[in-house]
Specification:
Structural class: alpha+beta
Number of helices: 26
Number of strands: 8
Distance between the termini: 54 Å
Largest sheet: 5 strands, mixed
């Protein structure tokens, strides 16, 4: 019993000390949240940089001249291939995230099994080509084995990254602190051990064994995550590897995000772009410029990896209901960019001076501008990637890539080339700032999709053109997948949007110019699941169509539309008037606007309570629930345009009648 009590007390203490995204959004604790997310990353990046310097020293001592150029170009090329594969896996993560939302576990298992077995096939192909290269290559023996070790590492990374993506699409994968650093120190220890016994051949041998241990440890923690998610892989079958015609046609959907993400690994591009350039590339002691970029590659990569720590947060805030919170969160992340840029530029300056001497001071100082612009650009790039703006990423990063390779034809000094690189990133940052608002403006037209009844009513009420409403009742369906596919097919045939007030009832609207769907067409659309179909006559606008919908009682009794608010009374308001009314009726209540600073009164709640406050506000906006069981607070939200603008918090000890009247008032205003 003592052990159980100790475990419960430990868990309670951990929960009290935890900080959540929701708490960072409404609790004013963003800096604490960001530090919690970034502290392990910064420590791990420091260790990786230290071990990278040791590896760099070994390579610099083993190889020289063209052999060194070949090794570094191939190593960074393999890094770009690995990054391309991770970017292409975004299609898998998006599908799994969508399927898990509909609780389609069998479909998730089938899709993941296909991707994993195909990645194993690609890994086997890389290993086969590596063996052929080892048998046919006439180059120096040590060069062959170093290149083979990098190829072997890539062959392990591809299936592990695929396996990782299936779970990472749903939740973060937990790894203890020792597991994060154990592999890095293991690689260093193996190099020292094997170097003593087998000399220079110990480097590729240690690299290969480190890759095996890293893959095994990653597999262990990823498998634990799958067990918690209750996802199992399908047994191997050859038909899981074969691709259908539809999958071949969808291949560009994999290539574009893959290339977009690979182009973000600009540290490797810098090494490749400057490799072999002789004019004006001496940094200090005759060291070529591409060696400096390879030496600083972990810090350059960290300039974009730090923003990826917030990948899950950007994904979570991508929905329409999080609109104002997403803007608030992005501004907070942007405010960290300069601080992160200064940290990595300082680390690069110190590391470069210690390794290359005082002669590299001027180039490193100029390069610090690059780190600042890189950190600023990273937040926009990661956010664009999470929002699937792949074309924007592709063209801007492609411009940077072309510019990097174009410098090879110019006769420039070392400092001028550094300024050229910094100016190139400043230009890409400016183009991103110009392109993002235009991209957002093009995305303001919503993509047809299934909506909640509440949002659907709001959308129809805003229509000012002739419109027709329709309702269809389906036969008994037990599979959510079948209903979703019916809705997707229906959305392709109509000009409006669809809502599902009940499991077997679908409602949609169409403009008057579109002919109504006939019963025969809908039977084909639903695959024979149609039971009844009814249309309203064409109405002058959406409000009139909703009134007709109400009078004809097309919806079931438990899904009736709320009464329209009176035009003579309470709909003319401002947020200031709404806040004044709330304070007058509930002096002890707490309210705040999403875009404003958080009130000090929120500090009275714990981090978990603040997380529940935001969750209940979203539920109120999406489902208009009237009961909030298991929570001591009554949370409501004002969101007239589909985005939460104000949140109101009440203790449940307040007068129940007043609280009910307030909730009903907000429900009407949100329509």
């Amino acid at each position: 019993m003592k052990n159980l009590a100790h475990w419960i007390a430990t868990r309670a203490r951990r929960n009290r000390s935890r900080i959540f995204l929701e708490d960072a959004l409404i609790g004013g604790n963003f800096l604490r949240y960001a530090f919690t997310r970034l502290r392990i990353f910064l420590l791990q990046r420091s260790v990786v940089t230290l071990l990278h310097v040791i590896e760099f020293t070994f390579l610099y001592r083993i190889f020289s001249g063209k052999q060194l150029v070949s090794v570094l170009v191939l190593q960074n090329s393999f890094t770009l291939v690995s990054a391309f594969w991770w970017g292409a896996l975004e299609a898998l993560r998006t599908k799994i995230r969508s399927m898990s939302h509909y609780h389609e576990r069998p479909q998730v298992e089938l899709l993941l099994s296909r991707w994993l077995y195909r990645s194993l096939s690609a890994s086997a192909l890389i290993l086969t080509l590596t063996c052929i290269y080892l048998s046919l290559s006439q180059s120096g023996s040590i060069l062959r084995w170093v290149i083979a070790s990098y190829a072997f590492r890539l062959s392990l990374e591809i299936p592990i990254r695929t396996f990782h993506s299936g779970a990472f699409a749903i939740k973060r994968i937990y790894r203890p602190l020792f597991a994060i650093f154990a592999i890095e120190f293991l690689g260093f220890a193996l190099i020292l051990i094997f170097w003593r016994f087998v000399g220079i051949y110990g480097f590729p041998l240690a690299s290969g064994l480190t890759a095996v241990f890293s893959a095994g440890l990653a597999y262990h923690y990823i498998r634990n995550t799958y067990q918690k998610l209750r996802i199992r892989l399908r047994p191997f079958r050859w038909k899981l590897i074969r691709a259908s015609r539809e999958e071949w046609r969808a291949l560009p959907q994999l290539i574009v995000p893959g290339v977009s993400y690979a182009l973000m690994r600009l540290g490797s591009f810098l090494v490749i772009a400057f490799a072999g350039v002789k004019s004006g590339t001496a940094v200090s002691r005759g060291v070529p410029l591409y060696l400096l970029f390879h030496f600083l590659n972990p810090l350059i990569a960290a300039g974009v990896d730090w923003a990826q720590i917030f990948y899950f947060d950007f994904k979570k805030l991508a929905s329409e209901t999080h609109g104002q919170f997403a803007v608030y969160f992005r501004k907070k992340v942007d405010s960290l960019a300069d601080f992160i840029g200064v940290i990595f530029s300082s680390l690069s300056l110190v590391a470069g001076l210690l390794y290359f001497g005082s002669g590299s001071l001027t180039p490193l100082c100029v390069l610090s501008l690059f780190f600042v612009f890189r950190a600023r650009l990273a937040t926009w790039q990661v956010k664009a990637f999470t929002e699937e703006n792949y074309k924007l990423l592709f063209w801007i990063n492609a411009l940077v890539g072309v510019g990097l390779f174009a410098q090879r034809s110019f006769e420039l000094t070392t400092v001028q080339r550094m300024l050229y690189v910094s100016a190139l990133f400043a230009l890409s940052y400016g183009l991103t700032l110009l392109a993002i608002p235009r991209q957002a403006a093009r995305q303001q037209t919503p993509t047809p999709q299934e909506e909640t009844l509440h949002n659907w009513i709001h959308r129809v009420s805003q229509l000012r053109e002739p419109v027709r409403l329709s309702t269809a009742t389906l036969l008994e369906v037990h599979q959510t997948v079948a209903i979703r596919r019916v809705i997707e097919t229906l959305l392709e045939q109509i000009s409006g949007t669809v809502t599902r007030p009940q499991k077997k009832v679908l409602c949609w609207y169409e403009t008057a110019s579109a002919p109504p769907l006939t019963q025969a067409e809908l039977i084909l659309t639903t695959g024979g699941l149609l039971k009844t179909l009814e249309h309203t006559p064409i109405c002058a606008n959406g409000a009139e169509a909703l009134e007709n919908f109400r009078q004809r009682k097309f919806l079931p009794p438990d899904s009736q539309l709320p009464e329209r608010p009176s035009t003579s009374g309470g709909t003319a308001f401002t947020r200031l008037e709404l806040a004044r009314r709330f304070r007058s009726e509930f002096p002890q209540g707490v309210h705040f606007e999403v875009q404003d600073a958080r009130p000090p009164a929120l500090a009275r709640y714990t981090a978990l309570e603040r997380r529940l406050i935001l969750n209940h506000a979203l539920r109120f906006r999406q489902k208009r629930n009237t009961r909030q069981k298991g929570f001591s607070l009554d949370v409501t939200a004002f969101a007239p345009q589909g985005e939460i603008q104000m949140i109101f918090i009440l203790e449940k000890s307040e007068d129940p009648k007043l609280r009910t009247r307030w909730r009903e008032h907000l429900q009407i205003l949100n329509l």
